[in-house]
């Protein structure tokens, strides 16, 4: 009698838990006005609001200033010389002194100015390529955060299904306890499993909220949006059309800059003459005379030879880096495609073999428990239901890995490169 009373109270508590769970589920649901956020929309928000854009613009501004500075020729010089204004013997009187005021200009030869400007402009191209690589890396991180948010949302449905199944079975177990078909500890164990599943559901919802908030932090927004679960469930193994990798573009820009530096170093072997004109005043007699002079550096033919050799070696090294980068990128793309195909194959087998069989076993055991038979126990149901949950969780993890590999594949193939045009115009 005591066991029956406790079973009835347990059944009433379970019904109350079901009712409260429904209320909490409705309260936890996102607002109806929350819009679906696609990947393109998330990346577009980052493309217009990411603080990294301002940093890239400042780097380009600095490189542009270097071009402006490279256009400056050697500055003219104005000077004055004083001679014989003090001395011994006949040079002691100040009226024997000489003073010369002069103006000097240096003429750059060998295209130094043009080479200097060309090297600065090549550095501008390098900075622009570096900015594009940084922005693509940030877009890839945003896409990865979007995938994590989708995975967190998908985990909620698994936790909800598990809680619903355990609540339904708890009611059946309570009925069996009342009918003296199962001992009381079976009902307590069922209630424990329900409590654990309820905690897991609460944790899954909180994890999804945090994942949405982390995603929105990339553009300074809030997590008041929804994610389309069908996108996460889609397994598309097609390879996006490949563009020239941004990493290779960076190396190409560095190669061009190295070539410009070679030309600049070669101009260092050409001498720059300077000319001087001045007016000299003679203290004795108070006379004036015009003076003209000039100078040419000697031994300049090989003066910059070391810098030329170094610049040429750097250029050859970058040439080799370009070839290596292209091979490695192609190799990584092939690896990513193969891994995604392997994961897609496992997902298909889980959908076709594992989940149907495990779900059928759960349904058979649950129907047997509901009919009041003694062929099954709650322990068997718990094990069968755990197998279903494990298979579903494994599927979610495989989908997450599949889409994260797709993030890297999109980064290597330059799928989101068109967004860079919008980001680069915000300066």
TrEMBL record:
One of its GO terms (molecular function) is efflux transmembrane transporter activity. Keywords: Coiled coil, Signal. InterPro entries: MdtP/NodT-like (IPR010131), OMP_efflux (IPR003423). The keyword Cell inner membrane does not apply. Residues 1-34 form the signal peptide. Residues 187-214 form a coiled coil. Belongs to the outer membrane factor (OMF) (TC 1.B.17) family. This is Metal transporter.
């Amino acid at each position: 009698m005591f066991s029956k009373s406790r079973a009835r109270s347990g059944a009433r508590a379970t019904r109350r838990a079901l009712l409260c769970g429904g209320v909490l589920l409705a309260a936890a649901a996102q607002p109806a006005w929350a819009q679906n956020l696609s990947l393109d929309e998330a990346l577009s928000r980052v493309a217009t609001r990411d603080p990294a854009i301002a940093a890239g613009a400042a780097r380009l501004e600095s490189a542009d200033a270097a071009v402006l500075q490279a256009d400056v020729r050697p500055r003219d010089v104005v000077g004055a010389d004083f001679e014989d204004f003090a001395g011994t013997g006949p040079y002691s009187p100040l009226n024997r002194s000489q003073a010369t005021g002069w103006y000097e200009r240096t003429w750059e030869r060998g295209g130094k100015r043009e080479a200097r400007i060309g090297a600065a402009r090549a550095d501008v191209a390098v900075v622009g390529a570096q900015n594009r690589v940084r922005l693509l890396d940030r877009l890839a991180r945003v896409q990865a955060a979007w995938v994590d948010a989708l995975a967190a949302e998908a985990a909620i449905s698994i936790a909800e299904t598990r809680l619903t199944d355990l609540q339904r079975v708890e009611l059946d177990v309570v009925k069996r306890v009342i009918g003296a078909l199962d001992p009381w500890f079976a009902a307590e164990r069922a209630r424990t499993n329900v409590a654990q599943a309820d905690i897991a559901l609460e944790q899954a919802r909180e994890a999804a909220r945090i994942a949405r908030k982390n995603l929105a932090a990339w553009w300074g927004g809030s997590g008041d949006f929804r994610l389309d679960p069908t996108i996460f469930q889609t397994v598309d193994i097609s390879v996006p059309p490949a563009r020239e990798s941004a990493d290779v573009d960076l190396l190409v820009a560095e190669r061009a800059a190295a070539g410009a530096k070679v030309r600049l170093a070669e101009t260092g072997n050409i001498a720059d003459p300077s000319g001087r004109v001045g007016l000299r005043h003679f203290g004795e007699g108070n006379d004036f005379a015009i003076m003209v002079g000039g100078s040419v550096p000697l031994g300049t033919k090989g003066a910059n030879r070391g810098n030329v050799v170094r610049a040429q070696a750097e250029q050859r090294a970058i040439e080799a880096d370009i070839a290596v980068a292209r091979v490695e990128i192609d190799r990584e793309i092939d690896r990513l495609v193969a891994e995604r195909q392997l994961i897609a194959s496992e997902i298909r087998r889980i959908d076709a073999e594992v989940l149907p069989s495990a779900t059928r076993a759960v349904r058979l055991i649950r129907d047997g428990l509901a009919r009041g038979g003694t062929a099954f126990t709650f322990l068997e149901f718990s094990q069968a239901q755990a197998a279903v949950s494990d298979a579903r969780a494994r599927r979610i993890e495989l989908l997450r890995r599949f889409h994260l590999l797709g993030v890297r594949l999109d980064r290597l193939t330059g799928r989101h490169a068109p967004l860079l045009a919008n980001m680069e115009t915000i300066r």
